């Protein structure tokens, strides 16, 4: 089932065209990865899906609903983002920062948070082993700890669509594998639509069901990791020489060659 349908999406920053006629279906209940070199438009693509940026042409359809017909609050109820960069490194406590994820669900601007909202925060802090940081000031966390807090906030928003922009960039390998494992489990259990930008091709091959490989604002390749991660495609998109070996399940492992 399609969770996000992207139809002929183009986007420019002033006169510089960044996304060019993207056309892709992103499946519900699956992990979809976005790959591609620095500056090719991955974050811009996520920001268009989120509605933070508006496309010049084309449509983005969430579960059959045209996203341009939804209000900001309606969008915030169904879609959340773990950003690549966050300027929100505040002196709020971690607990209050994560609680912000409940904002779109408040009945009115005057109603406060409920016990259910607070429990939700606790559950997600626990899920990501962040309980000991609950009372700490967000700005005092390490880069990797804060990255996990960003995920806790996005999950507390209870989204149908979860966008993650390089969510493991500050994590050690153990935490990176743990985080992607937890996201994958949630995607399956709650039948979420998830889109994750990753630079680590091996992690993408291990965790993603489908991959979108971009270059210069266009989708070059789309399909399973086995189909997308080939020596020829990596040469074409990254100008990288590589050797690819496959495990017994057909999952590709990429060895870059110098
Ligand atoms: N606000 C902006 N105004 C003008 N150009 C921008 C703006 N934001 C991004 N760009 C440019 O758009 C292009 C795509 O940026 P984007 O952040 O989408 O790349 P990316 O694929 O996410 O790269 P990375 O892997 O480095 O995160 C880049 O050339 C970037 O410099
Ligand atoms: Mg980016």
Quick structural summary:
The protein has one domain (about 1-90, about 160-255): Rossmann fold (3-Layer(aba) Sandwich). It is of the alpha/beta class. The chain contains nine helices and twelve strands.
Task: Give the topology, please.
Elements: E1 2-13, E2 16-27, E3 31-35, H1 42-50, E4 57-62, E5 65-66, H2 72-78, E6 79-82, H3 94-99, H4 115-127, H5 143-156, E7 161-165, H6 173-189, E8 193-197, H7 201-207, E9 210-215, E10 218-223, H8 225-228, H9 231-238, E11 242-246, E12 252-256
Parallel strand pairs: 3-8, 3-9, 6-7, 7-8
Antiparallel strand pairs: 1-2, 1-4, 4-5, 9-10, 11-12
Helix pairs in contact: 4-5
The chain binds adenosine-5'-triphosphate (ATP) and magnesium ion.
What report would you give on this structure?
- The protein is an alpha/beta fold.
- The protein has one domain: P-loop containing nucleotide triphosphate hydrolases (Rossmann fold, 3-Layer(aba) Sandwich), CATH 3.40.50.
- The protein is built from nine helices and twelve strands.
- It has a six-stranded mixed beta sheet, sandwiched between helices.
- A hairpin with a 5-residue loop joins strand 11 and strand 12 (252-256).
- The protein is globular, with a radius of gyration of 18 Å.
- The model has no long low-confidence stretch (mean pLDDT 94).
- Magnesium ion binds next to helix 1.
- Adenosine-5'-triphosphate binds next to helix 1.
Write down the CATH topology.
Rossmann fold
CATH architecture classification: 3-Layer(aba) Sandwich
In terms of structural class, how would the helical and strand content be classed? alpha/beta
Please give the radius of gyration in angstroms: 18 Å
- How many domains? 1
Number of strands: 12
> Largest sheet, described in full?
6 strands, mixed
Write down the secondary-structure element order. Answer: EEEHEEHEHHHEHEHEEHHEE
Report the average pLDDT across residues.
94
Bound molecules: adenosine-5'-triphosphate, magnesium ion
Question: Percent of residues in helical segments?
Answer: 25-40%
Strand content: 25-35%
How are the strands of the largest sheet arranged? 6-7-8-3-9-10
Kindly report how far apart the N and C termini lie: 41 Å
User: Total number of helical segments?
Assistant: 9
What is the name of the CATH class?
Alpha Beta
